Amino acid sequence: MLNDITVIVLAAGGGTRMKSKTAKVLHPIAGRSMVGHVLAAVSALEPATVVAVVGHQREQVAPHIQEQLPNAVLAVQEEQSGTGHAVRIAWESLSPEDRHGTVLVAYGDTPLLEGDSLRQFVNAHVSTGGAVSILSGVVEDPFGYGRVIRDEQGSVTAIVEQKDATDEQAAVSEINSGILAFDAEFLDSALPRIGNDNAKGEYYLTDTVALARAAGRTVGAFPLDDVLQTEGANDRAQLAALAREKNSRILRHWMAEGVTIIDPATTWIDVDVTLAADVTVLPGVQLLGTTVVAEDAVVGPDCTLKDCEIGVGAKVVRTHGELAVIGAGASVGPFSFLRPGTDLGAKGKIGAFVETKNAQIGDGAKVPHLSYVGDAEIGEGANIGAGTIFANYDGVAKHRTVVGRHAKTASNNTFVAPVTIGDGAATGAGSVIRKDVPPGALAVSSGPQRHYDAWAQRKRAGTEQAAAAEAAGTDAVSDAGEVGPGVGDEPVGG
Ligand code: UD1
Ligand code: CA
Does 320 share its domain with 385? Predict the structure, then answer.
């Protein structure tokens, strides 16, 4: 039944109450602009054509719509002289041979709109054979909306705007959501007959209802129970309220799909995120963009993951990540910073205070503590010692470091890229690795340790340090040092 549909999305309005340099319909909710949500909902109807009417800030709005829906037709309304005028401009932007079937009019600022609701509404409209159908809603406070006026038989006779309503009409609680469906032929004949003789001096699209009745045509009004779906955001407070509502709907959806969400109040999930059954989300988590989390993974507490891929059974704790891939059974955090291009293998580990970027870390490989891993490849089963810096930037260009399979590097190393540490190789603590290490070799670069005996007693006489050294006695002098060239004092070997 649903074919031959043209959708007109009105998005020319100013949105002055947002007080923003960003056009109102471009403000995001759940990872998508408000108009992006509307375009996604109307696309569920598989319309032949979508026409978007743009006006205010169209230099932002038009390219955004084109990006979201490349085959959308853009119609420009220079001055916002009413919804009837806006639809007329959209209609006239279509070639006459495309003006047929059913026409659905929606607004660009209703981010909770669902395709299913539109489908049911258009079905109802088509089955009545009416000239116009109204997606209506019964609300507690109808102030500001157009009221749906019915006669004694219950047939719809008109929509009356707030400013034009009598007290009796204003008391009606059934409102026009703004979403209307038309028979194209009727719309074609009605648009030129809409006048602007009303309280606002605007061309009201809603006047088509009385025009249809005058022509003896049927008008239907179909109340949508879930009125929030057609609610628009006009200021930042309404934007926040709708964002929270959208978020709770997304969370309820995932909980129904078998995801455990411990604290819905502090969990935010974007509309394009995908979660498997038996994922657990702990408090304070934001899953953003196109993040995908596989079965049995546990995320949180306190993570922000954008466009990440989390493998089966992985654990991610207090982590900020973007464009990172975490393998099955891997462990990340707490306090890890995963930058784009991080790819951690199965059962791998990125631990506390570790920053990674453009780093392929193999299966079972570990970077457990306090490190920076940039532009690197770490082989499977390798272990990177605490406090290791992959020095990838020489001040001019970035270079790569390769650490081989099952290599074990020691604490406080610096790998000066480009450099390769071979398979099964090792390094000593505090090494600065500038030259390639052959497979299986131990590389040690720090100088031999030297002792300047009784240095504290001689150079820090009178301090608690010297007193402590004195109290420990001279027997404690170790044999670890070697005699080397003295620098202002003579070192003593043991
Ligand atoms: C409109 C309806 C009202 C309905 C309400 C629901 C009319 C005359 N009134 O009233 O019955 O209850 O929406 O929210 O239709 N727009 C344009 N160009 C224009 C005017 C508006 O693109 O010249 C767009 C706006 O950007 C907005 C939408 O159309 O997205 C609605 O316009 P708005 O001025 O908010 O209409 P209301 O007075 O609220
Ligand atoms: Ca409005």
Answer: yes
Q: Are 122 and 269 in a shared domain?
A: no
d(CA 311, CA 290) in angstroms, rounded, equals 14
Percent of the chain whose pLDDT exceeds 90 = 94
Kindly list the catalytic residues.
369
**Does residue 334 have a cis peptide bond before it, meaning omega lies within 30 degrees of 0?**
yes
Q: Which domain holds residue 366?
A: 259-443
- Does residue 205's CB lie within 6 angstroms of at least one atom of ligand 1? yes
Q: How far is the CA of 130 from the centre of ligand 2 (A)?
A: 25
Ligand 1 binding pocket includes 203 (Cβ within 6 Å): no
Task: Tell me which ligand sits closest to the C-alpha of residue 177.
Answer: 1
Residue 493 in domain? no
13 lines ligand 1 (CB under 6 A): yes
Structure tokens at 222: 């179909």
Residue 195 counted as domain residue: yes
Task: Assess whether 66 and 212 both reside in one domain.
Answer: yes
Residue 483 clears pLDDT 80, i.e. is over it: no
Q: In the predicted model, what is the mean pLDDT of residues 374-380?
A: 98
Residue 492 lies in a domain: no
Kindly report the pTM of this predicted structure: 0.93
Q: Is residue 329 part of a domain?
A: yes
If asked whether residues 203 and 125 sit together in one domain, one would say yes
Average pLDDT, the chain: 95
Please compute the mean of the pLDDT values over residues 385-393 and round it to a whole number.
97
Contacts of 156 (CB under 8 A, 6+ apart): 134, 148, 149, 150, 209, 213, 219, 220, 221
Residue 55 alpha carbon, nearest atom of ligand 1: 22
